[in-house]
Amino acid sequence: MNTEQYTEAEKFLQQNPETHEFDLLLPDMNAVLRGKRILREKLLSIYKKGFYFPVSVFGMDVTGETMEETGLGFESGDQDVPCFPLPQTLKVVPWQKDRGQLLLRMFEADGSPFYGNPREVLKSVCLKMADSGWNAVVAIEMEFFLTDQKRRPGHPPRPASSPASGQRESEGQLYSLTSLDNYDSFLKDISDSADKQNVPVDTALAELSPGQFEINLHHVPDAIQACDHAILLKRIIRSISQKHKMEASFMPKIYPDLPGNGMHVHLSLLDTEGRNVFQGSDALGSPELRNAVEGLRGVMVESMLICAPHANSYHRFQSDSCAPVNMSWGYNNRTVSIRIPASEGPDTRIEHRLAGADANPYLLVAALLSGILHGLKEKNDPPQPVEGNAYLQTDLEFPETWEEARNHFEQAEILPQYFGREFCQLFANLKKGEQSRFFSKIAPLEYEWYLKTV
């Protein structure tokens, strides 16, 4: 038992006598929060003895179906393994008067961290980075749609009606303050809930599509904590949207003719003296910045399955769609995959724009840090940065389909050095099972096209 954490729990119970239930949260391979709900009386025993979850939690597809290809289902006896609380994650749930929440960490039977937990993968990469004398500063941005709760089966949802005006937006207005005003009560509830859970929300903005918003998290010098914030912010956004009679969706591509939802990651590195490794003598940054860019390009193909983990993910990559379509990079250019924002000095950083909002932030950041470490080790420079429209660059394409991305991940050479081959095999097998299940279904469009024509 960790005495410090146990004391933290005792103090929480004393300060929150009205909290009678607790949600135990464990993000799975797809960053879906799995868990159980317990009564107040059982909380302290979890800090003493832990709480058992089936190991198959990390063998589930996005719908919660165990993929037997992972070996974590019946083959393993669907065994239970112990989970223990993560420190400083015991929080109130502001949208529920009598509820708290707690993030858990899974362990093997021998007491070592469970190898299939994406959070542990990121932790191992961060340790490798620390061994090299660097620490990552990370901020995550997430886009989402607010949609109507009522939807016809098989049809796309409609944008939600504004809580203020009752009107449904038909066109998006990028950076529209009117859109922010129309959803002010919703956004304020998110800000208040995030503040109570110590999730550092930074800014909110209206995006290009009707009912689409982006919420940015403030940068923190702890990559794991940055991803914890992203996971918890998703839960906050979804829960607050329900309170306001709306649904929040992070699905990468909801509407065929409108931009989709991305997850952008801002990254910089600090050395042991706290100096930004990417800072140079001018806006072009340091040689290490360019080495890091080439490292990110070096893992882009084999990490595509992490950036775009689902079938719908690949609809997002369309020319002129605000999502990148190649391995381009550039300065102050939003058409590229790897952008160096307009900043100098200590603020010099990389913005990775490829991933969809459906990506698991732990795996995504782990892949990006692995690429940066690889680039700093190899010390290769990238090609010339793209100026102007990167959508016109047609010779630098990455995998275009879900199956192709899995094939490249299975043949990866760089990521297994940082993730561990056992985890890479588990993730590939999970996606193999998920793809097999998805493509075994017959889509309604197939009946419309083929039933009476071929």
Q: Your description of this structure?
A:
This protein is an alpha+beta fold and 454 residues long. It folds into 2 domains: 3-112, Glutamine synthetase, N-terminal domain (Ubiquitin-like (UB roll)), CATH 3.10.20; 125-419, Glutamine synthetase/guanido kinase, catalytic domain (Creatine Kinase, Chain A, domain 2), CATH 3.30.590.10. 33% of the residues lie in helices and 18% in strands. The protein is built from 13 helices and 14 strands. Strands 7, 8, 9, 10, 11, 12, 13 and 14 form an 8-stranded mixed sheet that branches. Strand 8 and strand 9 (212-217) form a beta hairpin. The chain is globular.
Give a short synopsis of this structure.
The protein has 13 helices and 14 strands. The protein has 454 residues and is an alpha+beta fold.
List the helices and strands and how they pair.
Layout: H1 3-15, E1 21-27, E2 33-39, H2 43-49, E3 51-54, E4 80-85, E5 91-92, E6 99-106, H3 118-131, E7 135-148, H4 177-182, H5 184-196, E8 201-206, E9 212-217, H6 223-243, E10 246-249, E11 263-270, H7 287-300, H8 304-307, E12 329-331, E13 338-340, E14 350-352, H9 361-378, H10 402-410, H11 415-419, H12 421-439, H13 444-450
Parallel strand pairs: 1-6, 12-13
Antiparallel strand pairs: 1-2, 3-4, 4-6, 5-6, 7-9, 7-10, 7-11, 8-9, 11-14, 13-14
Helix pairs in contact: 1-2, 3-9, 5-6, 7-9, 10-12
